[in-house]
Specification:
The chain is built from eight helices and five strands. By secondary structure, it is α+β, with helices and mostly antiparallel strands. A five-stranded mixed sheet has the order 2-3-1-4-5.
Length: 225
């Protein structure tokens, strides 16, 4: 079995022009600390700031890709680029992401550069023929999210988080928790297009997970570039 990993490399958009840059950097640090604390079992190398306003981390499977993105999206609020790479490593594993090297890092960096060049939210780079389709799907999803109002962002993130923690969590539970009518919650989720996001997330995760890491189930690879 081939040992593959996922590296996420991100960078804040136009961060040098920010008037409240220090505040945004603090929110980024908070996000990375939350990710590291929440997904200890799945993190191979901890998420950390690597250069100025850039960040990077390595995970062992695609299980929590969207959970990580939602934490970043919910805490930072400032727009950021994200490159996702899937591949092997050439060095020994280390808890320090800067001490590891391999094709997965090259792909993640290439993906981030492509995101910046084309002004995409996210670029997915695994060397699969379906990379482009997965990238477009992720960008349609991110485009919906980044157009949410503050209220929509707050409600959807909380609802998604509680649903993941509690199998029986309902709209009624959320409505009672925050003191609004169930119908109001339903309208907010509908306007946020949460259902289509939820379905798209499941489709993406299922596809990548089904093909994950084994030679027998190895995704069709793209031609050499």
């Amino acid at each position: 079995m081939v040992s593959r990993y996922i590296v996420l490399t991100g960078d804040l958009k136009s961060s040098r022009k920010l008037k409240d840059r220090a505040k945004v950097q603090e929110s980024l640090k908070k996000s990375l600390n939350e990710i590291n604390a929440t997904f200890k079992k799945g993190i191979v190398a901890k998420f950390r700031i690597v250069q100025g306003d850039s960040f990077q981390g390595m995970i062992s499977s695609p299980d929590h890709l969207f959970d990580i993105y939602y934490i970043l999206f919910g805490n930072i609020t400032h727009k950021f680029y994200l490159g996702i790479g899937i591949g092997e490593i050439y060095t020994d594993l280390s808890g320090n992401v800067e001490e590891i090297d391999g094709e997965v890092f090259h792909k993640a960096i290439c993906a981030l550069e492509k995101a910046k060049r084309h002004n995409y939210w996210i670029v997915f780079e695994a060397g699969w023929k379906i990379d482009g389709i997965l990238t477009y799907l992720l960008n349609f999803m991110a485009d919906i999210m980044w157009n949410w109002t503050d209220r929509q962002r707050e409600i959807v993130i909380h609802y998604r988080k509680m649903k993941n923690q509690k199998n029986e969590y309902t709209l009624r539970d959320l409505a009672e928790e925050i003191g609004v009518r169930k119908q109001t919650i339903s309208k907010i989720l509908k306007r946020s297009r949460y259902k289509i996001l939820e379905d798209a997330e499941k489709s993406f995760r299922d596809y990548v997970s089904q093909k994950w890491l084994t030679e027998e189930c190895k995704p069709e690879m793209a031609d050499d570039r």
